[in-house]
Design a protein that fits this description.
657 residues, alpha+beta, Arp2/3 complex 21 kDa subunit ARPC3, Heat Shock Protein 90, two-stranded antiparallel sheet, 21 helices, 7% strand, elongated
Length: 657
C-alpha cells in the first residue's frame, strides 16, 4: 500500500470539512443506520421458527456496531437503538400482538445490544497494549475473548427479557441463548475486523501490481466458493491456503475480506441446502457454518497478527542494525582520529627528544639567555592575551552598536546648543570685562586662575573635536546597521555599493597594516548600478565571507613568503561592479593572495569543507554564500584561481527578483 492519500480521498475529506457539525453527524449516521438495518433484516429472514421469531444464528449488525463505536465513539447510539427497534419490533409484535409490550421489549433489547458494543469497546481500550487491534497476537486473543464474553452476556440478558415478557418459552432458553450468542459473536469476530481494516486502507492508494494480484485472489476465492457452496463439492479446505495467501500478500485487508466473502458464499449455499454444513434444521446448519467461519476468522486474525509482529520485529531489527552500523562508523572514525593524534604525538615527542639530546650542552651555556628569552615570551604572552581580550571587546562593541546610536545622536544634536550657549557665556564675560567695572577680589582671583583667554580658545577646539568624534561614531554605527540589515530579511530594492562599503567599514581593522604585512589596499571599480530587488542582509553576509577569505589568503601568502622582499609586496583586493545585458549585475572580487588549488576549488562550496586549521573555520561560509546567491536570489557564483597568484569570485544577480 502507498501511504499517500488518493486525489478522490483528499477531495472527499475537503468537502466533508466544509459541512456543519450536524451535517457531518447526519452524513455518518444515515449510512450506519442503513447498513445496520439492512444487514439485520437479512439476519431476521433466517431467524429461528420459534417465538419470538427474531433470534438468528447470523447477526452482522453486531460487527457494524462494534466497529462504529471503535471508530466514532458512542455518539451514534440513538441511531443504532432506532435501527434495532425497527428490526425487532415487527417480529415481537407478531408474537405478542401487544404493541406496548413489543415496543418496550424492543427498546430493552436494543439497549442490551448497544451496551454489549460499548462494554466491549471500553474493555478493549483499557486492556489492549496499544490501540492497534490486530497487529499483535496478544491483542487478537483479548479481542476474541472480550467479544465472546460480551456477546454471551448480551444473549443471556436478551433471552431472559424475552422469556420474562412471555414472548418465548423457558423450555427453549438454552437453545435460544446459544443461537443468539453464536450469531452475535461471529458477527463481531468476522465483520468488525473487516470494517476496521477497510476504513484504514481506504485512506491510501493501491499499487497497480498489488491491485492485479488482488483481482486474481478474488477470482480464485470466488471460484472455490462457488464450487463448494454452489455445486456441493466438499472442498472447504481450499479456503485455508487462500486465506494464508491473503495474509502474507495483502495483510489484514485481504484476509478479513476473504473471510467475509467466504462467510457470505457459505451462508447463501447453506440457505439453499448446498454444502457440507447442511443439516435437516436450517438453524443447526447455520450454527455449524458459523462455527467453521468463526474458527477460520480466529485463525486468520492470529496469523495476520503473527505476520504483523514479524514485520515489526524485522523493522525494529533493521533500525537496530542501522543504529549499530552508525555507532560502529562513529567509533571507527573516533579511533582513527585518536590513532592519528597518537602517532603524531609520538613523532613529535621523538623529534623533541632528539633535539633535546643534541642541544643539551648548548642549553647549559645559554641558561641566562633563555631566562631573558623567557621573560620576553611572558611579556609577549601577556600582550597576546590582551590582544585577544581587545578582539572580544571589539566583537561585543559590534553587537551593541545599535544601542549606541540613540545616545550618540542625543550628544551630537546637543553639541550645537552647547556651542551656542558657551559662546554666549564667553561673550557675556568679554562684555563684562569691557565695561571697566572693577571686579570683586574673589572674582578677580577666579578669573586669573581660569585663564579666560586660553579657556575661550580651548573650548572651541574641544567642541569641534567632540563634534568630529560623534560624527565618526555615527558613521561606524551606520555602517554596522547597513551591514546587518536586521529589519530587511525580505526582498526589497537596495544599493549594492552601499552594502559593499558597509562591509569594508566593518572589516577596516583587518585591512590595516600589521607587524607581518603592510596595509591591504582595496581598489573600487564601481560602475553605475541600479537598485536591485534582494535581501540586503544576506548579500552583506556573502560579501563579508568572500572579502574575509581574501584577507585570509593575503595573510597566508605573507606567512608562507616571509622574506623581506615579499613583505614589501602590497596585498590588494579589487572590487568591480557592472551591468550585464541590462537585466543582470555582476560583482567581481579579486585578491592577490595565495590562491586555491584545483582539488580544493572543486569542493569549495561543499558544506563543512574548510582548509583552515581546527577551530578557525566551520566550512559553512561559502556553502551559505552559494545557497544565498543561487537558491535565494536565482543568481550564480563562480570562482577562478591560480595557485600562488590569487583568486577571483564572480557573482551575477538579477536586477528584478
Amino acid at each position: 500500500m502507498n501511504n499517500k492519500p488518493s486525489l478522490f480521498n483528499r477531495f472527499i475529506v475537503r468537502e466533508i470539512d466544509s459541512l456543519s457539525s450536524l451535517s457531518k453527524w447526519l452524513l455518518v449516521a444515515i449510512p450506519l443506520a442503513a447498513a445496520y438495518y439492512g444487514s439485520g433484516k437479512l439476519g431476521v429472514m433466517i431467524a429461528l421458527p420459534i417465538p419470538p421469531g427474531t433470534i438468528t444464528a447470523l447477526w452482522p449488525p453486531s460487527g457494524i456496531l462494534w466497529a462504529a463505536n471503535w471508530c466514532f465513539g458512542y455518539r451514534f447510539w440513538p441511531v443504532f437503538l432506532l435501527a434495532d427497534m425497527a428490526i425487532n419490533g415487527p417480529g415481537l409484535f407478531e408474537t405478542s400482538h401487544d404493541l406496548t409490550k413489543a415496543i418496550v421489549t424492543a427498546i430493552i433489547l436494543g439497549f442490551f445490544a448497544i451496551l454489549e458494543a460499548i462494554g466491549g469497546t471500553v474493555l478493549l481500550r483499557r486492556w489492549l497494549s496499544n490501540f492497534y487491534l490486530f497487529d499483535r497476537s496478544e491483542n487478537v486473543v483479548k479481542f476474541i475473548l472480550i467479544a465472546l464474553l460480551c456477546t454471551a452476556l448480551n444473549g443471556l440478558f436478551s433471552v431472559s427479557v424475552t422469556c420474562l415478557s412471555g414472548m418465548a418459552n423457558w423450555v427453549n432458553f438454552g437453545y435460544l441463548w446459544y443461537t443468539l450468542w453464536i450469531g452475535n459473536a461471529i458477527g463481531v469476530i468476522v465483520f468488525t475486523p473487516m470494517l476496521l481494516t477497510w476504513r484504514q486502507y481506504l485512506q491510501h492508494q493501491v499499487k497497480r501490481r498489488q491491485f492485479i494480484e488482488g483481482l486474481l485472489f478474488l477470482s480464485v476465492l470466488l471460484s472455490a466458493g462457488i464450487i463448494a457452496f454452489g455445486q456441493g463439492y466438499p472442498i472447504e479446505y481450499l479456503f485455508i491456503p487462500c486465506l494464508v495467501w491473503a495474509n502474507f500478500r495483502f495483510g489484514l485487508l485481504g484476509s478479513t475480506t476473504g473471510v467475509t466473502i467466504v462467510t457470505i458464499l457459505a451462508l447463501l449455499g447453506t440457505i439453499k441446502g448446498v454444502g457440507s454444513f447442511v443439516r435437516p434444521s436450517l438453524n443447526e446448519s447455520l450454527i455449524l457454518l458459523q462455527s467453521f467461519m468463526g474458527s477460520a476468522a480466529v485463525t486468520t486474525l492470529l496469523l495476520g497478527a503473527a505476520i504483523a509482529e514479524r514485520k515489526a520485529s524485522e523493522s525494529a531489527l533493521d533500525r537496530a542494525n542501522q543504529q549499530l552500523e552508525n555507532r560502529v562508523e562513529e567509533r571507527t572514525a573516533a579511533l582513527q582520529q585518536a590513532n592519528y593524534q597518537l602517532t603524531t604525538e609520538i613523532a613529535e615527542r621523538k623529534e623533541i627528544e632528539a633535539a633535546m639530546c643534541a642541544s643539551e650542552a648548548a642549553l647549559k651555556e645559554q641558561t641566562q639567555e633563555l631566562q631573558a628569552t623567557l621573560q620576553k615570551l611572558k611579556a609577549t604572552q601577556s600582550q597576546l592575551i590582551q590582544t585577544e581580550k581587545m578582539s572580544s571587546i571589539g566583537q561585543l562593541v559590534a553587537g551593541v552598536a545599535h544601542e549606541i546610536n540613540n545616545p550618540v545622536n542625543f550628544i551630537h544634536g546637543n553639541l550645537s546648543y552647547l556651542d551656542e550657549y558657551t559662546c554666549g557665556l564667553l561673550e557675556l564675560l568679554e562684555l563684562y570685562q569691557a565695561s571697566n567695572v572693577e571686579p570683586l577680589p574673589n572674582i578677580q582671583e577666579k578669573l586669573e586662575e581660569l585663564d579666560l583667554e586660553f579657556l575661550s580658545a580651548d573650548i572651541s577646539k574641544i567642541l569641534q573635536s567632540m563634534r568630529m568624534g560623534t560624527e565618526r561614531i555615527r558613521d561606524i554605527v551606520l555602517s554596522l546597521r547597513n551591514f546587518s540589515r536586521l529589519d530587511q530579511s525580505e526582498f526589497k530594492k537596495a544599493d549594492i555599493h552601499a552594502g559593499i562599503d558597509s562591509t569594508l567599514t566593518i572589516l577596516q581593522h583587518r585591512l590595516r597594516a600589521t607587524s607581518n604585512r603592510p596595509e591591504i589596499q582595496v581598489l573600487k571599480n564601481y560602475q553605475k548600478l541600479p537598485s536591485i530587488e534582494c535581501c540586503p542582509g544576506q548579500l552583506n553576509q556573502v560579501f563579508m565571507n568572500i572579502i574575509s577569505n581574501g584577507i585570509d589568503a593575503i595573510e597566508e601568502n605573507d606567512r608562507q613568503n616571509c622574506t623581506e622582499a615579499d613583505r614589501t609586496k602590497t596585498g590588494e583586493i579589487c572590487i568591480t561592479t557592472e551591468v550585464v545585458c541590462r537585466e543582470w549585475i555582476k560583482i567581481r572580487v579579486v585578491d592577490n593572495g595565495i590562491g586555491i588549488s584545483e582539488t580544493i576549488r572543486s569542493r569549495l562550496f561543499d558544506p563543512f569543507f574548510t582548509t583552515k586549521p581546527v577551530g578557525q573555520g566551520t566550512g559553512l561560509g561559502l556553502a551559505v554564500a552559494h545557497q544565498i546567491i543561487v537558491e535565494k536570489h536565482r543568481g550564480s557564483i563562480t570562482v577562478n584561481s591560480t595557485l600562488g597568484e590569487g583568486t577571483e569570485f564572480a557573482i551575477a544577480l538579477p536586477i528584478a527578483s
